[in-house]
Amino acid sequence: MSDSTTLAVVKMDGELDIGRRAEIRAALAVDGHPSGVLVDFAAVSYADSSAISELLRFRNDLNRRGLPVALLIQSPQFKRLLEYAGVHEAFAVFDERAAALTYLGNAAS
Amino acid sequence: MSLPRSAAAPARPLLRSLAVPILVLVLVVPILLGGGYVVSRVLRQSFGNSDARRAARTLNFTLLKDQLDEETGVRGFTSIPDPAFLDPYAAAKRDFPVKVAKLRERLTVLAIPGAGALLDDVVAVNGEWLAHVAAPLLANPNRAEARVLQFRGKALIDRFRRDSEELDAALVAREQGDNRALQSAIDNVSKLVFFAVSLIVLLAAAAAAAQSRLAARLEAARRRAESEARANLELRTAFETEKRIADTLQDAFAQRPLPVVPTLVFSATYIPATDETKVGGDWYDAVELAKGRVLFSLGDVEGHGIEAAVNMSRVRQALISAALIDADPAAVLRRVNDYLQSAGRMATAVAGYADAATYEFVYATAGHPPPLLLQPGRGPMLLECGGLPLGVLENCAYRTRRIQAVPGAVLVLYTDGAVEHSRDVLEGEALLVQAARTALEKNVTDLAASIRTEIFGRRQVGDDVAILTIGFAPGETTRMTFAADNTHGTVVSGPRGVGPKPSPASFGVAA
User: Fold this and answer.
1) B209-250, pLDDT tens digit by residue?
2) Mean pLDDT across B453-467
3) For position A61, which CATH number holds?
4) Domain residues for A27?
5) In whole angstroms, what is the distance from residue A55 CA to residue A91 CA?
6) B residues 350-379 closer than 8 Å to A (CB)
7) Hey, where are the domains in chain B?
8) Which B-chain residues 247-306 have CB contacts (< 8 A) with chain A?
9) Contact A49 B423 (CB under 8 A)
10) CATH of the domain spanning B256-499
11) If we measure between CA atoms, which residue out of A58, A77, A67 comes closest to residue A33?
12) How many domains does chain A have?
């Protein structure tokens, strides 16, 4: 879960649907006091409304805790789904891991 | 269901409770009958013996008295030879054998050991006395040895008396023995009766206990069956209620009337998900709020089943209520989002207005797939979308987008089931665009159903799918042909999803 110094990384792959809801919830349960969270969904190709709902609730939680989040997306299909959901408005979305890390580094400093 | 089990359970207790009366019959009745027989036999024998004993003792005394009478008569005659003295002698001598025979008969019945021998001796003494004392004395009362004979006679009489007393003692002893036997029989029968009564009482108590246990068990079984039946009824009622509610909701959904407005054309379709829950969270609405100005909304509430349907109904009504207050779609969605914060359910929606007078579509989306616009002579356009789903974040801002359309333009609204069936949403969008264009060119009356058929054919639909189309009636000269797919060049630009947003000016959207 923990990356480099104090960065938390959430990594999932495949298709995120209601059948994996508990798994998604567990993966997104970031505890402790990381400097930021990298949600690495580079290998995710699909998310249904329940998964997106979990992602948005997760965003709410981190907002309350004042933690910066970077969302790493590479699948165009998944990206399009997140556009439907307005997720690109709520998250800092990146298609390169380096850019995401830079964003989180800047946010933490 | 376990009703048959509870109905069969009392069978064994029933047998057990029947076993008790059967035991009573088998054990107690023979005991009482046997005891009764023994008592009656002992009593009968005892009474019979008692008569025989009494008669025997009387006869025994009579024999002794006869012997004494004979002796007295002979002695008298020897002193004074008057034949009158011999009357008792003669009578006694005549009756003696008859009485002996009667006594012997009684003694035979009583079967007293030694009694026969005593009687034999009595008869012998009497015979000897008659032959060797009485006869010589009667023949010659004055003979010299008369005193000797009389002395001998006395000895014989004494022997007779001893035999008689001995016989009487034996009869008395026998009477006491019989009484003891009778007493013992009575005692035994009393014990038997006591035992039988105790047994009956015990068995009756056991039967009562078994009866009460059986009654308790039957009562418990009855209660169990009753509660099971009640629970089943409640379950069935609940199931039927849920089914009725679901059916009613679905009917209400399916029969939602579309407004009839000059120059506007509506069509709609809804396909429930193929799983057991028929009613999903998808909805569509078109309501004429002012003359020629129609509110449209279409969306999807998270989840399935009655709960989703109820939430969906809330969102629909909230949308209509908000639209009555606010003319701006973004403001409408914002109001609904605030309203939904307490519900804890997410919903995606597209809502807006179609104006028959100005050929304008105004809409806003909240986490919802983009509306599809088809206009004569132009390529299909997937319009802009975005905005967080409703009910997720407080104070969300949504964007109102305005489309200046032309006669014959059609706006296609749909839920995610229409584009996410293959889980490749880009492929889904392309299929939808193609289906819409094909359906429109066929000039069918029910455009929404036609699009659905084009997309799904005879395939099963995994998720709920709702499609609503709103069209401006074509003008006199409008030709229903559409340019090649220019989706890529308009709304969703560049490499899919990644890259700069398309400029609103390039596809005529005023932000």
Assistant:
1) 888 999 999 999 999 999 999 998 888 888 777 767 766 765
2) 80
3) 3.30.750.24
4) 2-108
5) 10
6) 366-370
7) 3-219, 256-499
8) 300, 302
9) no
10) 3.60.40.10
11) A67
12) 1
